[in-house]
UniProtKB/TrEMBL annotation:
<dbReference type="Pfam" id="PF03883">
    <property type="entry name" value="H2O2_YaaD"/>
</dbReference>
<dbReference type="InterPro" id="IPR005583">
    <property type="entry name" value="YaaA"/>
</dbReference>
<dbReference type="GO" id="GO:0005829">
    <property type="term" value="C:cytosol"/>
</dbReference>
<protein>
    <submittedName>
        <fullName>Peroxide stress protein YaaA</fullName>
    </submittedName>
</protein>
<dbReference type="GO" id="GO:0033194">
    <property type="term" value="P:response to hydroperoxide"/>
</dbReference>
Length: 228
């Protein structure tokens, strides 16, 4: 089973491994498209005014902005699953999982980066900042990646059970053509949003612990605070 997952805007600035190259990513033949996006991003952050950068990064503090104006092609990296540190990743708590559970996540989880597009959890990324939905002038990365990566993803996932744990925004990057399972989190009759991030992390950790092969296995192991 393959699991589609969202990134987070919060990240760990702890990268120590070699800079990105073709081998850093799934779909090596599409590496040049990723680099096109990175080039546009770097040109923009090196020439945009303060207001535009505040919008792109989603931060107001001027002193923080320079920390994100980096040469990403030559920056150190780390595995995507350990780079992201938002709510979903806190509840996943990857570092405390046993080695086999970690291996399951690294091999079976696809994360939809707002800047780099779809990556495996085991792929390597540099520390970067890009607010969800932000635009680089008229260049919409979600449309760009949907156009250039959907065919490869369809082929990669064609024989897989599929679980989509992404936030709805990431349908703009890729819409599965095959049947898939997903979860909506409801409390007192209302769909929850913030807590949904936590539940997605909990479900990914559950999948890893039970080495889930399909959604039926997940349903049979739901924790007591989650029920149908």
């Amino acid at each position: 089973m393959k699991i589609l997952f969202s990134p987070s805007e919060s990240k760990n600035d702890t990268c120590k491994e070699k800079p990105i190259d073709k081998s850093s990513f799934i779909f090596e033949n599409l590496f040049d498209f990723r680099m096109q996006a990175v080039k546009k991003y770097e040109e923009y952050i090196n020439n945009a005014d303060l207001k535009a950068l505040q919008e792109l990064f989603g931060i107001k503090n001027e002193n923080e902005i320079s920390n994100f104006q980096r040469d990403l092609k030559n920056s150190p990296t780390q595995q995507a699953i350990t780079l992201y540190s938002g709510v979903s990743y806190e509840y996943l708590n990857f570092d405390i999982l046993d080695k086999e559970s970690q291996k399951y996540i690294l091999e079976n989880t696809l994360i939809f980066s707002n800047l780099f597009g779809v990556v495996k959890a085991s792929d390597h990324l540099p520390f970067y900042k890009f607010k969800q939905g932000a635009k680089i002038n008229n260049f919409a990365l979600e449309k760009f990646y949907k156009e250039h990566f959907s065919k490869a993803l369809d082929e990669y996932l064609k024989n897989e059970e599929l679980l989509d744990l992404r936030a709805g925004f990431y349908d703009k990057f890729y819409t599965p053509k095959r049947k898939f399972s997903t979860y909506k989190f409801i409390k007192k009759g209302k769909v929850v949003s913030h807590f949904a991030k936590a539940y997605r992390g909990i479900l990914l950790a559950l999948c890893a612990r039970i080495k889930a092969k399909n959604n039926a296995e997940i349903l049979n192991h739901l924790p007591s605070n989650l029920s149908l």
